[in-house]
């Protein structure tokens, strides 16, 4: 049976449960569910099952490694192989240490912005004053940025939070005018110029093809 992603609110708050019955389990961030399921469908990877942890954990990176440990141990012997579709994601190396301890494979890179664009290319940019969005974050900008920072109540604080940024870079996985509009609205709210780069699935596609 083909796996389908729930709505973005569910992916943000609850994630996605695995269906079972496959040989390979991919444990990923809920923000990657659409992309991984698209790759799974496109390539006919029926032997891959996807489990997503809540995407909102990115706002609390200290909680990601414990939740990953719990999920991997719960999967137990139900799968021949477990692959972790998280980069470091602000955990300070905690995810890599957990993967080493549990014998799990993990995608390379500091964060999803890097592996979507391609880790080598992203590093070459050397952009330390850019604020990034992906397709998921363009859709969920208010839930991940605007409201958690209190900018819905105090938009005047935006200059304090984002005054040192020079641009908003939208790393687009798909060509979708609605998402382009979402990214433009986010840039306008932050008072930043918008740069759009089409990345497709980048190193995520390569990493999943290697384990598939």
Beta-strand content: 15-25%
CATH class wording of the largest domain? Alpha Beta
Runs with pLDDT <50, length 5+? none
- Form type: globular
Number of DSSP strands? 7
Largest sheet: 4 strands, parallel
If you average the pLDDT, what whole number results?
95
Cα separation of the termini: 18 Å
| Strand order, largest beta sheet | 2-1-3-4
Second CATH tier, the architecture of the largest domain: 3-Layer(aba) Sandwich
According to CATH, what is the topology of the largest domain?
Answer: Rossmann fold
Question: Can you give me a brief rundown of this structure?
Answer:
Helices cover 43% and strands 16% of the residues. It is α/β, with parallel strands linked by helices and 212 residues long.
Question: What are the main properties of this structure?
Answer:
Rossmann fold; 7 strands; alpha/beta; 212 residues; 2 domains; 3-stranded parallel β-sheet; 11 helices
């Amino acid at each position: 049976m083909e796996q389908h992603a729930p709505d973005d609110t569910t992916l943000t708050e609850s994630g996605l449960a695995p269906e079972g019955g496959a040989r390979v389990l991919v444990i990923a961030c809920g923000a990657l569910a659409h992309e991984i399921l698209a790759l799974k469908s496109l390539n006919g990877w029926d032997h891959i099952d996807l489990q997503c942890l809540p995407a909102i954990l990115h706002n609390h990176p200290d909680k990601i490694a414990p939740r990953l440990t719990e999920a991997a141990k719960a999967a137990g012997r139900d799968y021949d192989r477990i692959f972790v579709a998280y980069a470091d994601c602000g955990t300070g190396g905690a995810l890599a240490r957990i993967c080493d301890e549990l014998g799990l494979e993990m995608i390379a890179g500091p964060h999803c912005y890097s592996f979507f664009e391609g880790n080598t290319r992203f590093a070459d940019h050397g952009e330390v004053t850019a604020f990034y969005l992906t397709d998921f974050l363009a859709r969920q900008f208010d839930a991940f940025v605007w409201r958690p920072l209190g900018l819905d109540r105090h938009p005047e604080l935006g200059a304090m939070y984002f005054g040192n940024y020079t641009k908003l870079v939208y790393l687009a996985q798909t060509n979708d005018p609605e998402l382009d509009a979402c990214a433009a609205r986010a840039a306008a709210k932050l008072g930043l110029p918008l740069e759009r780069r089409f990345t497709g699935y980048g190193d995520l596609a390569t990493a999943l093809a290697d384990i598939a």
